[in-house]
Design brief:
alpha+beta, 3 helices, 3-stranded mixed sheet, about 160 residues
Length: about 160
């Protein structure tokens, strides 16, 4: 996937095809940005960051489920669920599943750091999903993220702009 800079966004080549490789390349590109390091950010937040960084046509956009599946199936990211051992990529993952009645909630967050460092435990002594929010730190655009707590089955989404 070659990219061409277009002001603050990156424009994708017309030959890019939707699929796991596309999802992982976009994630790999944004995870190198140190402003997002050393924070537990949900998969939805990473998608927001990708959408802000890439000038992507609608047919190439993807969601957190696509990203999570691609990461789970890629050999490069095997073992990132273990937050006690160093991994060569400095990428860590934590997930939470909860059944509330007939509705099942799953939240996945990723932590990016220097490959020589371990991540901070999600949430410290508390369960991380009680406090984690899906909001990008210092968004590139003027839009401000709406912060909503996860534990009460609500999710944070960026406000739509008209």
């Amino acid at each position: 996937m070659s990219t061409t800079p277009n002001r603050d966004c990156i424009k994708l080549d017309s030959g890019v095809k939707k699929g796991s490789q596309h999802y992982l390349r976009c994630f790999d590109a944004v995870r190198k940005l140190k402003q997002y390091w050393n924070k537990w950010l949900t998969a939805e937040c990473w998608i927001d960051i990708i959408n802000e960084r890439y000038d992507m046509p609608a047919n190439l956009k993807f969601n957190a489920t696509n990203l999570n599946r691609a990461m789970g199936r890629d050999q490069k990211y095997k073992g990132i669920e273990v937050t006690k051992d160093l991994n060569i990529h400095g990428v860590y993952k934590s997930s939470f599943k909860e059944q509330v009645g007939e509705r099942r909630t799953m939240i996945t967050a990723y932590y990016i750091t220097n490959p020589k460092l371990l991540p901070q435990k999600p949430g410290g002594n508390a369960k991380w999903y009680d406090r984690i929010v899906s909001s990008a730190p210092e968004p590139m655009t003027a839009r401000q993220p709406t912060v909503i707590w996860i534990r009460n089955e609500t999710f944070s989404r960026r406000p739509e702009t008209s």
